[in-house]
Design goal:
The protein is α/β, with parallel strands linked by helices. It has a single domain, classed as TIM Barrel (Alpha-Beta Barrel). It contains eight helices and eight strands; from the N terminus they run βαβαβαβαββαβαβαα. An eight-stranded parallel barrel has the order 1-2-3-4-5-6-7-8, surrounded by five helices. The longest helix is centred in the last third of the chain and has 20 residues. Bound molecules: D-xylitol-5-phosphate and zinc ion. This is Ribulose-phosphate 3-epimerase. Its cofactor is Mn(2+); Zn(2+); Co(2+); a divalent metal cation. InterPro entries: Aldolase_TIM, Ribul_P_3_epim, Ribul_P_3_epim-like, RibuloseP-bd_barrel. Belongs to the ribulose-phosphate 3-epimerase family.
Length: 228
C-alpha cells in the first residue's frame, strides 16, 4: 500500500486547513509536518502549536519530521500536540536507541531519518524498533530542491535488510519526489512518499493541487504494479 504524505511546507500557510483538505481530496493519506530550528538546518518553520492546529484539521496520521538539535527536549511537547509518528535525525541523536524508546513511551510511533551523506549501516541496530525509516533524497531544510539519485541505493539496501531481518518497518522518501522521480523510489521499495512542491506547486489553486496529487499517486501505483 502506497501512502502519499503531503508536506505542508509548500502549502499556503494562510489557508492551511483548506490546503490540507485539498491534498486529502487528491488522495493524500498522511500529513507530513517539517519542524526546523535554524540550527540543524538553515531554515526555521513551526513548532508544537502549529502541529496542534494541524491536528484539529485532519484525522490522518501526523508524520512529524524533526529537523532540530536535541529532539529529546521536545518529545513530550509533540506528543501533547497530537503527533502520531515522530521522526528524528540519526545525525543529532547521541543516544538514538534511548530517543526512539522515549518516543514510544510517549505514545507515538518512532521513526529515524538519514541525510544523503549518512549510510544505512549507522541505523541497523535500531531497525527492529522503528515504525519507519526516512531516507532523505535532498539535504534537509527547504522544499523544491532537486532529487539526489544516489540515495535510491539506500532505499534498496533497507528493503533488502527488512527482508533479511524479518522486519516490517516502512520506508519513506523525502525531497524532490515528483512525477519524474516517484517510479524509481517505489521500485526501490519506498511506500511512504513525501511530496511538497510536487503537490502544492505554489499554485494556490485547489483544483490544481488536487489533480497534482491524483497524478502523483497514479504514477506511484503504476510503478508498484510494474513490480508484480
Ligand atoms: C525538506 C523537507 C521536506 C520538503 C520536501 O527538508 O523535509 O519534507 O517539504 O519538499 P519537496 O517535496 O518540494 O522536495
Ligand atoms: Zn520532511
Amino acid at each position: 500500500m502506497i501512502d502519499l504524505a503531503y508536506s505542508i511546507l509548500s502549502a499556503d500557510f494562510a489557508h492551511l486547513a483548506d490546503e490540507i483538505a485539498t491534498a486529502e481530496r487528491g488522495g493524500g493519506t498522511v500529513c507530513h509536518v517539517d519542524v526546523m530550528d535554524g540550527h540543524f538546518v538553515p531554515n526555521i518553520t513551526f513548532g508544537p502549536p502549529v502541529v496542534a492546529a494541524v491536528r484539529r484539521c485532519t484525522r490522518v496520521p501526523l508524520d512529524v519530521h524533526l529537523m532540530i538539535e536535541d529532539p529529546d527536549r521536545y518529545i513530550a511537547d509533540f506528543a501533547k500536540a497530537g503527533a502520531d509518528w515522530l521522526i528524528v535525525h540519526q545525525e543529532v541523536c547521541r543516544h538514538l536507541h534511548r530517543t526512539l524508546s522515549s518516543i514510544r513511551e510517549h505514545g507515538m510511533q518512532p521513526a529515524v531519518v538519514i541525510n544523503p551523506a549518512t549510510p544505512v549501516e549507522t541505523i541497523i541496530e535500531v531497525l527492529p524498533m522503528v515504525h519507519h525509516v526516512l531516507v532523505m533524497t535532498v539535504n534537509p531544510g527547504f522544499g523544491g530542491q532537486s532529487f539526489i539519485p544516489r540515495c535510491v541505493g539506500k532505499v534498496e539496501h533497507l528493503a533488502a535488510l527488512r527482508e533479511e531481518m524479518g522486519l516490517n518497518f516502512r520506508i519513506e522518501v523525502d525531497g524532490g519526489v515528483s512525477n519524474d522521480t516517484v517510479a524509481q523510489v517505489v521500485k526501490a521499495g519506498a511506500d511512504l512518499l513525501v511530496a511538497g512542491s510536487a503537490i502544492y506547486a505554489g499554485s494556490g489553486d485547489p483544483a490544481k493541487t488536487e489533480s497534482n496529487a491524483v497524478e502523483f499517486l497514479r504514477r506511484a501505483n503504476a510503478a508498484t504494479r510494474s513490480l508484480a
